[in-house]
């Protein structure tokens, strides 16, 4: 992998990147209340008395939220802390009815882990390990709505109290590509595990991007934090802009200020939001309403046993079946794709042939239709049947394409389409020999040229024969018989 460098006016600069990812936990209830968490509900319709901070209301931890965070930690080989504690992070803001956020500063639920990423999609075997410092569980704040009234802002508390996992990386990334690969890999793992839906557009997964620059080999520079970036592409663009901005500031004689910034996706720039607070500015202290979390072995074993096959293990299994590393990477990148492909294999498809077909034919068709694989008009069992008809010689490659197009339009099975439309490939040597004789008789000039040494005309005769037989002749048989006929 080539090293990423910023070319400044006074030389080269390295970029140091860390990500703090907020992932909304998949749960039907909030972290400390029974209120619903569905996206898109009418404002303030999913708010309990606890979420609204009514006097005398006490939080009760949601077991499922803790379980999902522990499972996520296990999926990234992280240390699970059997004893953890909740803290109050005190600050005033209009969308924070309690005046504090319940979080975990000093004793998080999950300790150190790691992710192995492949920053270069063309070279998936070139990996880099990114450390994860911790995962802690915390409640989300509400949301201010500034576009509902000309002079007032409204508060929607539907998100207030929603369970978040804050997944904090080490500053181990050194390029926008590495940060993008890390975020994609983390999102894939969360979706495989089922602990977060990873829907960045809806805000259920978002990243705070920490960036600093330095001369090669020097001490870490002052970092800025760009808040709540909600797509992989925007994270990469924010890093690109912010790193260049910092280099320009330093080379211009200024100094980088530790601050919180926002990314403007329309202009592709970051802008200052507020000076960066330190932890002591929040006045953290243990939450007096919540006992420490103590996890027993039975709970941990249940979490461990519930984990699915994860992307790296699945990719290794696919490669062991003879699937190319590139195809294996494509097929395991999204959990829906991997599940669909596993169903295709279970239906009896040959792994390498199936991987090539899914990566080219199926993905191509779904892209044209604007659909994801979960909405494919062709089921895995139907696809397996189509591939078996190619494997046993019933269909040629070109006929299989025709059958597949009909399947997409009608949802019919391949066998029914072949029977109904007479698309079966023929290997009848007598019929093919008769067509070849007719083709040669109709093209005496090309025949003389071929026999005079113009070997490239062999393809012409193959094409004419296939055309005359409506594409239904077995190409291998056509080739063999033509060689004999042409001498």
TrEMBL record:
<dbReference type="InterPro" id="IPR023168">
    <property type="entry name" value="GatB_Yqey_C_2"/>
</dbReference>
<comment type="function">
    <text>Allows the formation of correctly charged Asn-tRNA(Asn) or Gln-tRNA(Gln) through the transamidation of misacylated Asp-tRNA(Asn) or Glu-tRNA(Gln) in organisms which lack either or both of asparaginyl-tRNA or glutaminyl-tRNA synthetases. The reaction takes place in the presence of glutamine and ATP through an activated phospho-Asp-tRNA(Asn) or phospho-Glu-tRNA(Gln).</text>
</comment>
<dbReference type="GO" id="GO:0070681">
    <property type="term" value="P:glutaminyl-tRNAGln biosynthesis via transamidation"/>
</dbReference>
<dbReference type="GO" id="GO:0016740">
    <property type="term" value="F:transferase activity"/>
</dbReference>
<dbReference type="InterPro" id="IPR003789">
    <property type="entry name" value="Asn/Gln_tRNA_amidoTrase-B-like"/>
</dbReference>
<dbReference type="InterPro" id="IPR042114">
    <property type="entry name" value="GatB_C_1"/>
</dbReference>
<dbReference type="InterPro" id="IPR017958">
    <property type="entry name" value="Gln-tRNA_amidoTrfase_suB_CS"/>
</dbReference>
<feature type="domain" description="Asn/Gln amidotransferase">
    <location>
        <begin position="339"/>
        <end position="486"/>
    </location>
</feature>
<dbReference type="InterPro" id="IPR017959">
    <property type="entry name" value="Asn/Gln-tRNA_amidoTrfase_suB/E"/>
</dbReference>
<dbReference type="GO" id="GO:0050567">
    <property type="term" value="F:glutaminyl-tRNA synthase (glutamine-hydrolyzing) activity"/>
</dbReference>
<dbReference type="InterPro" id="IPR018027">
    <property type="entry name" value="Asn/Gln_amidotransferase"/>
</dbReference>
<dbReference type="GO" id="GO:0050566">
    <property type="term" value="F:asparaginyl-tRNA synthase (glutamine-hydrolyzing) activity"/>
</dbReference>
<dbReference type="InterPro" id="IPR004413">
    <property type="entry name" value="GatB"/>
</dbReference>
<comment type="subunit">
    <text>Heterotrimer of A, B and C subunits.</text>
</comment>
<keyword id="KW-0808">Transferase</keyword>
<keyword id="KW-0436">Ligase</keyword>
<comment type="similarity">
    <text>Belongs to the GatB/GatE family. GatB subfamily.</text>
</comment>
<dbReference type="GO" id="GO:0005524">
    <property type="term" value="F:ATP binding"/>
</dbReference>
<dbReference type="Pfam" id="PF02934">
    <property type="entry name" value="GatB_N"/>
</dbReference>
<dbReference type="Pfam" id="PF02637">
    <property type="entry name" value="GatB_Yqey"/>
</dbReference>
<keyword id="KW-0067">ATP-binding</keyword>
<keyword id="KW-0547">Nucleotide-binding</keyword>
<dbReference type="GO" id="GO:0006412">
    <property type="term" value="P:translation"/>
</dbReference>
<dbReference type="InterPro" id="IPR006075">
    <property type="entry name" value="Asn/Gln-tRNA_Trfase_suB/E_cat"/>
</dbReference>
<keyword id="KW-0648">Protein biosynthesis</keyword>
<protein>
    <recommendedName>
        <fullName>Aspartyl/glutamyl-tRNA(Asn/Gln) amidotransferase subunit B</fullName>
        <ecNumber>6.3.5.-</ecNumber>
    </recommendedName>
</protein>
<dbReference type="InterPro" id="IPR014746">
    <property type="entry name" value="Gln_synth/guanido_kin_cat_dom"/>
</dbReference>
